[in-house]
From TrEMBL:
UniProt protein name: Putative membrane protein
Stored Pfam families: DUF7847
Boundaries of every DUF7847 domain copy: 19-256
Keyword Cell membrane in annotation: no
Keywords for the protein's UniProt record, in alphabetical order: Membrane, Transmembrane, Transmembrane helix
Keyword Disulfide bond: no
Organism, scientific name: Halapricum desulfuricans
TM helices/strands, residue ranges: 101-120, 141-159, 165-184, 211-229
Length: 277
């Protein structure tokens, strides 16, 4: 792609990524950051418990099916039964609920995570670091959460479809789409836009700034890997809390960094537009 597609000639300079990182760390280490991480950790623990419970339910149903319909005298069946029993015994904290209830619970928690991230975006965008103001958090929160959840689904579908159609291009088009839609949640949370308007607004804001946004995406990837690796090594009670905690830190920091970049890009774009008038 040409430089004109990535760089906006109306902007004198790109945002300072190092300063954005410093601001994001300040946000993460603030009272507001701690509140966001705590909320995401609690929801993460609950999600893990429900996911483990769902997996155990599936394994137990599979065991019942095998014992009732298969020839358990065969070595293959015996080995499968042993493997399933070991997987059930190795499962962490679980709750005894039906599969439909567990699925509804997981969906509800996913929506709750979106609500928390909407609140985080608003707090970080308004530089509210001494705690999330109740009025800011509650403003149109149900509708913003619904918009954000729908937008996330649309984005994932778009990336999956583009990836499937252009896999021979090494997923470059999918990356292009991902970068263009990176600020959709910010557009919904801060500017009160609907999903389609937010997608259009994010695409327009990223246009001409894709090198900056690409650098941002690389940082997000590095941070995600840096938190996932130690989380994957945790097991037992430590993993039950430690993995969601690290995931919460990753989500909170990523939200702060993307929001800081969004605010800076929007200010730069507005300034450039006023100068051109």
């Amino acid at each position: 792609m040409s430089a004109e597609q990535f760089d906006d000639p109306t902007l004198d300079e790109s945002p300072d990524l190092y300063q954005l990182l410093a601001d994001a760390f300040d946000s993460l280490l603030s009272v507001t950051g701690a509140q966001i991480v705590a909320a995401l950790t609690i929801v993460g623990v609950a999600s893990d418990v429900l996911a483990q419970s769902l997996l155990v339910q599936v394994f137990e149903d599979t065991l019942t099916l095998i014992r009732e319909n298969a020839d358990t005298s065969q070595p293959e069946a015996q080995q499968l039964i042993t493997d399933l029993e070991q997987a059930i015994d190795a499962a962490g904290l679980t709750v005894d609920l039906s599969v439909p209830v567990l699925l509804v619970g997981l969906l509800g928690l996913a929506i709750l995570v979106e609500a928390i991230r909407i609140v985080a975006v608003r707090a970080f965008a308004n530089d509210e670091l001494d705690g999330v103001p109740r009025a800011l958090a509650a403003r149109r929160l149900p509708i913003a959460t619904a918009y954000g959840f729908v937008a996330v689904i649309l984005i994932y579908l778009a990336i999956v479809i583009v990836s499937a159609l252009t896999f021979f291009l090494l997923f470059v088009p999918a990356l292009f789409v991902y970068l263009g839609l990176l600020f959709v949640r910010q557009e919904i949370a801060v500017s009160d836009k609907g999903p389609i308007q937010a997608i259009s607004g994010s695409w327009g804001l990223v246009k001409g700034n894709r090198w900056t946004v690409l650098g941002l995406a690389v940082v997000l990837l590095v941070v995600a890997i840096g938190t996932w690796l130690p989380a994957s090594l945790l097991a037992g009670p430590a993993g039950t809390v430690g993995a969601p905690l690290l995931s919460g830190v990753n989500l909170a920091f990523g939200t702060a960094l993307v929001t800081e970049t969004y605010v800076q890009l929007r200010e730069d774009t507005e300034t450039a537009a006023q100068s051109a008038m």
